[in-house]
From TrEMBL, chain A:
Superkingdom in the source lineage: Bacteria
Name by which UniProt lists this protein: Sodium:proton antiporter
Alphabetical keyword list: Cell membrane, Membrane, Transmembrane, Transmembrane helix
GO molecular function: monoatomic cation transmembrane transporter activity
Pfam families (UniProt xref): MNHE
GO CC, one annotated term: plasma membrane
Protein family per UniProt: Belongs to the CPA3 antiporters (TC 2.A.63) subunit E family.
Topology of the protein relative to the lipid bilayer: Multi-pass membrane protein
From TrEMBL, chain B:
Cited Pfam families: PhaG_MnhG_YufB (PF03334)
Keyword presence, Transmembrane helix: yes
Protein name: Na(+) H(+) antiporter subunit G
Molecular function GO labels: sodium:proton antiporter activity
Organism: Tardiphaga robiniae
Residue intervals passing through the bilayer: 7-28
InterPro entries tied to this protein: PhaG_MnhG_YufB (IPR005133)
Keyword Electron transport among record annotations: no
Entry superkingdom: Bacteria
Keyword set, alphabetical order: Membrane, Transmembrane, Transmembrane helix
Length: 179, 96
C-alpha cells in the first residue's frame, strides 16, 4: 500500500569508486567553467578559481553524494523542451487568473503517491513540479505521500502529475531496467 | 539583421515586464500565502526568462552566458525556496 516504503524502483545503487571520481571530475570542470564565465577568464584569477572549484566540488559531494542516475541525454533534451513549454503554460495560466476580474481560483490540496523513492530524484521531481502549471509540492504527509497545493483542484491534477513523473523518470533514468 | 534583433528584444522584454506586472497583481489579489507563491514563482520565472531572452542579442557571448546562469540560478532557488515556504505554511500556518 505504501509505495514509498515497499517499492524501491529507481533506488540509487551504491556508487562505485570509479563513478565517484568521474562524477567529481565532471563537477569540478563545471564549477571551474562557471568561475571562468564569472571572471572573463582573467589569467590572474585562475589560481583562486582552481581553489574555489575544488572547494565547491568538495561541498557538493558532501551535500549531494554521487548517485548512479542512468542519465539519458536524448530523453533529457526532450524533457527539457517539454519543461520549457510547460513553464510558459504555467506562467500564462497564473497570469490570466491573476488578471481575470472574477479571480477564478479553486485552491486546495491534493495528495499524490510518488513512485520515485525519497531522495535526490524525488526532490528533483518536486522542484520541476513547482514550476509546472497549477501545482506546488508542500512536503510529505505522514504516510509518505506528497502534499501538492493546487490553484484549481477541479483540474485533473493527479493524472497530470503521474504523466509528468513518468516523463521525468524516463529522462533521469529512474526506471527499474536502468539500474 | 540588427533591426530584427532589436524588435525581438523590445517584444521579449516588454512581454517579460508584463508577466512581472501580472505576477505582482497576483501577489496582491490572491487570497492566501500558498496561492501567492504560485503567482510569484511561475509568472516571475517566465517574466525573467523572457527578459533574459530579449537581452541575449544585445550582449557579448560571455555576458550572454552570465545572463543564462542568472536565470538558471533564479529558477533553481525559486523552485527550492517556494517548496520550503509552502511546507512551513502547511505545517505551522501562515503566521507561525
Amino acid at each position: 500500500m505504501n509505495s514509498a516504503e515497499t517499492g524501491n524502483i529507481g533506488e540509487a545503487s551504491p556508487a562505485r569508486w570509479s563513478d565517484v571520481i568521474g562524477g567529481a571530475v565532471i563537477r569540478a570542470i563545471g564549477f571551474f567553467c562557471f568561475w571562468l564565465a564569472l571572471t572573463r577568464g582573467d589569467p590572474g584569477d585562475l589560481g583562486p578559481g582552481l581553489i574555489a572549484a575544488a572547494a565547491a566540488t568538495w561541498a557538493s559531494l558532501k551535500l549531494l553524494p554521487a548517485e548512479q542516475w542512468g542519465f539519458r541525454p536524448i530523453k533529457f533534451a526532450g524533457f527539457a523542451l517539454h519543461f520549457f513549454h510547460q513553464s510558459i503554460v504555467a506562467g500564462v495560466d497564473v497570469a490570466l487568473r491573476a488578471l481575470h476580474p472574477r479571480l477564478p481560483l479553486q485552491p486546495g490540496f491534493v495528495t499524490y503517491q510518488a513512485q520515485l523513492p525519497p531522495g535526490t530524484k524525488r526532490n528533483t521531481f518536486c522542484a520541476i513540479m513547482s514550476l509546472m502549471p497549477g501545482t506546488l509540492p508542500c512536503g510529505t504527509s505522514g504516510d509518505g505521500s506528497l502534499a501538492i497545493h493546487c490553484l484549481d483542484v477541479t483540474q485533473p491534477v493527479v493524472e497530470q502529475l503521474s504523466m509528468e513523473e513518468t516523463l521525468c523518470m524516463g529522462a533521469l533514468g529512474s526506471a527499474k531496467s536502468d539500474a | 539583421m540588427s533591426l530584427v534583433m532589436d524588435i525581438l528584444t523590445i517584444c521579449a522584454v516588454s512581454a517579460g515586464a508584463l508577466f512581472f506586472l501580472a505576477g505582482t497583481v497576483g501577489l496582491l489579489r490572491f487570497p492566501d500565502t500558498l496561492t501567492r507563491l504560485h503567482a510569484l514563482t511561475k509568472v516571475d520565472n517566465l517574466g525573467l526568462g523572457l527578459i533574459v531572452l530579449g537581452l541575449l542579442p544585445q550582449t557579448s557571448s560571455l555576458l550572454a552566458v552570465k545572463l543564462v546562469i542568472v536565470w538558471l540560478l533564479v529558477q533553481l532557488s525559486g523552485a527550492v525556496v517556494t517548496q520550503l515556504i509552502a511546507g512551513a505554511v502547511r505545517q505551522h500556518g501562515a503566521d507561525g
